[in-house]
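Why predict the complex rather than its parts? Because the way molecules touch one another can change local conformation, and only a joint prediction can capture that. The input here totals 627 residues.
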Amino acid sequence: MSGFFQATIYGLLQGGLLALVAVGFSLVWGVMNVVNLSHGAFVVLGAYLGWQLHSSLGLDPFLGMILVAAVLFCLGYAVQRLLINLVVNGPIFITLLLTFGLELLLVQGMNIVFTANYQSITTSYAGNAVIVGDIQLPLGRLLAFALAVVITVALVRVMSRTRVGMSIMATGMDRGAARLMGIRARHVYAVTFGLATALAGMAGTMVGVVDTFNPAAAGRFTLLSFVIAVLGGLGNMYGALVGGMLMGLVQAWGGYFLPGTWVNALAFLLLVVVLIFRPSGLVGKAFYSARLEV
Amino acid sequence: MAPTLSPAWRQRWPWAAGILAVAAAFGLQTQLYSGQVRTIGTIFMFVALALSWNLIGGYTGYASFGQVVFFGLGGYVTAALMTHAHWSFWLALPVSGLLAAGYGALIGIPLLRLRGHYFAVATLGVAEGTREIVTNLPDLTGGGGGITLPTVGAAASTKYLGNDGFYLVFLVLAALCLLVTALVSRSKFGFALRAIHQDEDAAAAVGINTTRTKVLTFALSGFLTGLVGATYAFQQVTIYPERLFDVELTVLMVVMVVIGGSGTVLGPILGAIGLQFLSEWLRQNYTTIHTLLLGAIIIAAVILLPQGLVNYLREARRNGDYSLLANVRRYRL
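Output of the joint prediction:
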């Protein structure tokens, strides 16, 4: 029983982190109707930047994360402004392909610069065990979980309370009307994408602290983000949190009860079932479904 | 083509050109040496894949991002039948195609109700899930360690075809896909697909049974993709789930169709040939960074020619405006 309990807690902790991985993806999809296939590559890039800061400057990853976020925000802003904005009104294959090209570019670039070897950010404290009852939890995972939840909640506040957040939401709901109100859609889209990549980068750094990573992991992160975004409802940030937790639990329980890698099949089965029966996501009404095409 | 053609020839010349091209491809084989035969055979494989994706993605407008599931399924059905039941490849091939088509109909019925990105994601999920199932049935599929088809000695139910044999099989498959696409493109069925692409509710309103049409198309597309997958499995001898259900294969199909021109007969062929040649050339000349360059080229192509080469030329000829810059403005924010 204690093994099951341990798996559940692990699943929830992992789920919180996965939520942060996916929240940016969900935001971009919900606001711009762009499925960003390069999202996972930005997560891995964040992990590598955090790792580089840690190994060459000795910067603590939880501090370095802020720098990583700043760098990735600028990169994401530029990518949206200079590339994706050029095709954002096209049919869906177009944006899918553009971001796929970007993914190839980023992943191969990282393969060349950082090699394909597995890396991880090793700190002196992340492996320390925190013992609650008869369950052992690594400190790094607890910290990562707490930060992931705090950042997601902060993001919700930013979206609903600040001028930037509200203009992002407005543009997502009706771009034409938003532009008539004097919102610069090109800039807002770029900020949205920048926010998404910054969040991906922070999530990546924390993934680096609790786990190993290499450039090839990018595809897996993109797929996970897909599933979580759909589970939670597009553009719904609390939804991403719920979707992430659910995903973490499914993975943990699947790994505990099922042999082999059946757990992966389970995750995708869940995705397909949710899509068929509740395409607007599990949590409330998707913000995207009410949106008008302009 | 030239506007001087008589109406009867305007109908006929594409068929004549198609037959000539296939005949030329048969003849080409005698002029190549062994390594080239394999490379060109792979190009035919991608032509067939691009054409079959084009049916559901290009004509019907349903972005199947899990198309590789039919490829993998076709390959694994052939592998299982040849290894465990000692079937001949020539018998396993059509059975693989039919099973892939059946799977297409089965998943198509619930999934084709979804539109846009949701359909794309759901098919992607099906493909990934199917790969995991295949990986977890080691008795039947060899699991993650792969399965080796019997190709030599007494165990071989069909003698290995060699580079020349596979060149012909892939060529015949590409020709079959071309024939199917040409027939669909000019039939009432093809117009029903285009109608669904443009406005599904309006298509239903004019009496098209949209569900049946979509499921049929998905199954047809799955059948053709399954045939190609079956042949690929035999060519590779040892197959792994990671390779046969590789998302990148799906993406390549989409890239080829979109760059060539989706919803046309010629576009996917040009896209497949162009991209494969380019990719092969890059691999030979810039070994370490060829994928990086490929990514950059995809980005450039998507931005400069978002509607695909064939559609671009068609429109440019009509308007007399060949400016790429004007073309970029098309989908810009």
